[in-house]
Amino acid sequence: MVIHNSSSSLAETLLHRRQRLASLINFPVILWSGYSNPRNFPANAFPFRASSHFLYFAGLPLPNAAIRLESGKLELFMDNPEPSSALWHGEMPKREEIAAAIGADVARTMSELKHRGRDAASIPVQNYRTTLIQSQILQREISSPSHLEGLDQELAKAIATLRLTHDTGALIELRKAAAVSVEAHKAGMSATPKAKLEAAVRAAMEGVIIAHNMTTSYNSIVTVHGEVLHNEAYHHPLQPGDLLLADVGAETPMGWAADITRTWPVSGKFSPTQRDVYDIVLAAHDACIATISPGVEYQDLHLLAATVIAEGLVNLGILQGNPEDLVDMDAHTLFFPHGIGHLLGLDVHDMEDLGDLAGYEAGRKRSDRFGLGYLRLNRPLKSGMLVTIEPGFYQVPAILNDANNREKYQNIVNWERLSQFADVRGIRIEDDVLVTDDSSEVLTLELPTQANAVEDFLNSH
Ligand code: GLY
Ligand code: MN
Ligand code: MN
Fold first, then answer.
1. Distance 262 CA to ligand 2 centre (A)
2. Longest dimension (CA), the chain
3. Is the pTM value of this prediction over 0.85?
4. Closest ligand 1 atom to Cα of 230
């Protein structure tokens, strides 16, 4: 754990966050970072990732630590390493140094937390061992983060209100994650001509992220089978006629995420069918981004993308009908089954540990319509929110071969025409878009999206 020299601005950022929290709630809060889990012996642990709610207020990824917040005051609880640890892990910063870096008022041992939990609210960490300790300290059962009650629920609402829009400190980190992710994608494109397997492109992309001392913010998707939405296999060979879909994002050491997808032709040139569909997905992407500004309903962006895709597929002769009617009957979901995107922040799909508390405006519920039910964000946009825009087109066998769909859309889909697009299994184009006071800023703009620009990049690197 390194304490950076910009720690005075970190302390200021954290002070501002807890002051804002104190303006929303008037009860004490304890947040745990979580325990690092051993694989087979204590010193061989799985990679540690601190809870994002902890990170938001504590700033640093401290394993096995807790903070107590009350009326804007910050107390840090953590144990100093055992003396023997220095042999294996070197000298680590002491509790007091860490407390100074994050602007904590007091630094205490973990055992001092014992009698401080009775009136406090908390959010469970998704780690069984930590949840047990949380229950002991709070002296009550603590339920799942997506079904909180009482003060815990009030706390979750307050935190969601704060984390929904990003402060200056967060935006500095989010821009770093975006910039490194752009470089990772460029490296992936550059590595493609010589790569034999998907794994080689993944390695080139993650290599850039690791070289910046960052990690990935989710398991990378680098696949010629883009129709498998969250494909985490990397063993397929790259063939000249394939499209490669890469959904890879970096996470800064303080935990802030990026989330980018590009889809490019392995050969360096889209086939005519691939190009036709790519341009439809890009038109949906561009139309959404051009529409983003405060007050716009995110669900309307989703429906805009759906309409642009439906219209494009009608023009290609794949769908038949009026685009608006096709969207009303969910025909677009045959090819675009997921939502247009989600919140981005300390997590990809930010705050989804809280269920839909952050993503959905109070009083709104998930739709039971196919496709719309996967919409993860349904609120009016606000300045300072960071969202992804990620339309796609996929030929998912489980959807297209489903007997009910075949029957329902028998006269809507021109199945014979569709069969001419067999070399388009999955296309997604995803960027990270900050809502500004009057429109938006694409944090990942440096990475080309236009088909010609993608081809030019592939052929010139
Ligand atoms: N990388 C996961 C997503 O785009 O939502
Ligand atoms: Mn995404
Ligand atoms: Mn993604």
1. 11
2. 73
3. yes
4. 2
